[in-house]
């Protein structure tokens, strides 16, 4: 029963149009829908759970959690609009927090006792973005992701038990 978390860029730059006239956000939505159709054909995917997170601030950025139905996920996916800022660091943190909360609720992780090794629930984060510069309300940042990591790796590393 893997958890598939889709992290969709909803920054204003996703309103760019391709040579065919479709926006980048429409392409991202189509990619998620196609993925889910193909995954749904596989009998082994019956227990899959899907989550949808976009680049908005918490709690608005969580569009569909682990308790929502497939219909709710698809409705929220279709209703995504590209109006926000590029905040991939905060969005990844939200994704890791949501997965961590899911593990706490399902009993895979226990507060103060660690992870139960006999429970196995793989989680996959699929991020779809146009890769434009990192922007926030304070402006556009010049550094690239490879040179200066602006992502909250301390929080992510602690959730993955890398420290």
UniProtKB/TrEMBL annotation:
Listed GO CC annotations: integrator complex
InterPro entries according to UniProt: Integrator_subunit6, VWF_A, vWFA_dom_sf
Organism for this UniProt entry: Myripristis murdjan (pinecone soldierfish)
Domain of life per record: Eukaryota
Residues annotated as domain VWFA: 3-132
Protein's recorded name: Integrator complex subunit 6
Gene3D superfamilies: von Willebrand factor, type A domain
PROSITE patterns: VWFA (PS50234)
Pfam families reported in the protein's UniProt record: VWA_2
Any single GO BP term: snRNA 3'-end processing
């Amino acid at each position: 029963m893997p958890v598939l978390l889709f992290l969709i860029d909803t920054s204003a730059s996703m309103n760019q149009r391709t040579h065919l006239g479709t926006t980048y956000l429409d392409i991202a939505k189509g990619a998620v829908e196609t993925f889910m159709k193909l995954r749904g054909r596989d009998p082994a995917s019956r227990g899959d759970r899907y989550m949808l997170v976009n680049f908005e601030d918490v709690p608005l950025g969580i569009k569909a959690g682990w308790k929502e139905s497939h219909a709710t996920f698809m409705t929220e996916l279709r209703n995504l609009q590209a109006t926000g800022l590029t905040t991939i660091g905060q969005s990844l943190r939200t994704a890791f927090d949501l997965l961590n909360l899911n593990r706490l609720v399902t009993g895979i992780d226990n507060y103060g006792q660690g992870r139960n090794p006999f429970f196995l629930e793989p989680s996959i984060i699929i991020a779809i973005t146009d890769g434009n510069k990192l922007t926030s309300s304070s402006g556009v940042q010049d550094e690239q992701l490879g040179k200066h990591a602006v992502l909250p790796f301390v929080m992510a590393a602690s959730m993955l038990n890398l420290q």
